[in-house]
Amino acid sequence: MNIGFEKAYLMQTPLNVSAGEIIPTYVYKVGLQGAQYSFAAAVGLFNAVINFILLWTVNRAAKKLSGSGLW
After folding, report:
1. Would you say 43 and 31 are in contact if contact means Cβ atoms under 8 Å apart?
2. Would you say the pTM of this structure is higher than 0.85?
């Protein structure tokens, strides 16, 4: 779920910003530029938890299907 902040941020223009907004660029604009540091931390934590849940779920599915996983 992470494509790289720099690529997405540098490719944004006023014309495509509504369609090209991703979680890291949203956190940067609202949380850091808007000085809402606790909001930026909460969104970052939420993103990390969702990424972990997805990784854990796919690892369990891979273990059941192929017999081997990441751990």
Report:
1. yes
2. no
Q: Where are the domains of the chain?
A: 5-66
For every one of its 71 residues, what pLDDT tens digit does the chain have, with 9 covering 90 and above?
A: 667 788 888 888 989 988 888 888 888 888 888 999 999 899 889 989 999 999 999 999 999 999 888 88
Kindly report the CA angle at 38 between 36 and 40, in degrees rounded to 5?
A: 70
DSSP 28-41: IIIIIITT-HHHHH
